[in-house]
Amino acid sequence: MPFASVFLSSTTYGTVSDTEGNFNLEVTQPGTYDLIIKFAGYKTFVRSVKLFNTPVLEIDVVLAPDVRMLGEVTVTAEKDELWRRNLEDFKKGFLGTSEFAQECKILNEEEIDFYFDKENNIYETYAREPLIIENKALGYKIKYILEDYKVYMSENYVRFYGFPVFEELNERRKPKKKWLENRKLAQNGSIDHFFSALYNNTLKAEWYEVHPAKDVDGNRYLDKNEMDLYQLVEAGSTPNSKKLVFEDILYVTYLNEALPASYLLTRESRFIKRSSDVEDYGGKEQVSQMFMFEEKTFIEFEKNGYVINPLDYLVSGFWGFERVGDMMPIDYRNTDIEDKK
Question: What is the pLDDT of residues 96-139, one digit of tens each?
Fold first, then answer.
């Protein structure tokens, strides 16, 4: 396939195939990555690749046609008032409502369609092409392959997943000071930052507190005693990964940044708890909750914060508030930070 998109998901590593379908992707940082190949009209190719001691990895890929079965749904692809209202709702759920999200723009909104499943009361968003997102707050242009986006109206929650690749907005110039500062804010306290700190057993040094909680008979009980989460970490399936094995609920608090004003206006803010430790850091804490899906028991992750099984757990609270508008590439630490030293 000529000019197919080829990239490692959630990174800045990306290219396109040549006129004969060949491609070459150079990766400077070892790790486990999701290799993504996308061509219009074909199913997204996804393969986990481990790039540690292999200097050259050769892969032959055959793409399969994508036959989409819509079923009994109502299509609102027309750019009418209903489509525009659906679009605004989608952007809030997908990009988020944070300060950084407000500086994001989807450049190809016309590729988005909406479907309503009346029987199951579910809204679904479908993009015919990868979404092109310009994030002027963080200085990235993001190509996002949206695999699934559903709003469960009866249960009142949103779930989506896809594969992004990042590139600098200005490739020929160094990132602006504003972008570097905002990237640091976006990275610190994020899920990637948390798992990287957990891997290195530096949660306390990185300003995290973790408390266990449990739901009993419709009531939630939070243990006020801080736990040593690293005691629940085990060896992973590879020499370069670790597993966090836990039950019930984890409350993760990031103490080194105040909550943004935009968060206090959302429904996620009801998860905020007070602590005397936060008074010196500008206000209320960033509190997030982490749950395992039923029958799932662990989260496997690597040193850079990459999670191998991201669909096995859910987050809420502050992490539920941060969406694509606050997303950073997982190779950020090995580019921006190292360049500043």
Answer: 999 999 999 999 999 999 988 889 999 999 888 899 999 999 99
Co-location of 153 and 196 in the same domain = no
The answer to whether residue 184 sits within a structural domain is no
Do 272 and 249 contact (CB within 8 A), yes or no? no
Question: Would residue 176 count as lying in a domain?
Answer: no
Quick one: 308 and 269 in the same domain? Answer: yes
Residue 340 falls inside a structural domain: no
Joined tokens for residue 213: 């909680």
Residues 90 and 133 in one domain: yes
Query: Is 174 within the bounds of a domain?
Result: no
At residue 291's C-alpha, the angle toward residues 286 and 297, to 5°, is: 140
- Cα–Cα nearest to 8, from 116, 131, 145: 145
**Residue 125 structure tokens:** 């968003």
Which tens digit of pLDDT belongs to each residue from 163-178? 999 999 986 667 789 9
Instruction: Please indicate, yes or no, whether residues 216 and 313 belong to a single structural domain of this protein.
Output: yes
Q: Nearest Cα to 207, choosing from 276, 268, 302, 277?
A: 277
Coil/strand/helix, residue 115: strand
Q: In this structure, is the dihedral angle defined by the CA atoms of residues 63, 15, 31 and 188, taken in order, positive or negative? A: negative
Find the farthest-apart pair of alpha carbons in the chain and give their distance in angstroms, rounded: 62
Contacts 24+ apart (CB under 8 A), 268-275: 268/316, 268/317, 268/318, 268/320, 268/321, 271/316, 271/317, 271/318, 273/222, 275/209
Residues 6 or more apart from 146 whose CB is under 8 A from it? 94, 125, 126, 127, 130, 131, 160, 162
**Structural domains of the chain, count:** 3
211 and 280 belong to one structural domain: yes
Assess whether 102 and 162 both reside in one domain. yes
Asked if residues 49 and 35 have their Cβ atoms less than 8 Å apart, the reply is: yes
Q: Give pTM, 2 decimals.
A: 0.83
Can you give the residue range of the structural domain that contains 34?
A: 5-51
Q: How many CB atoms lie within 10 A of CB 31?
A: 20
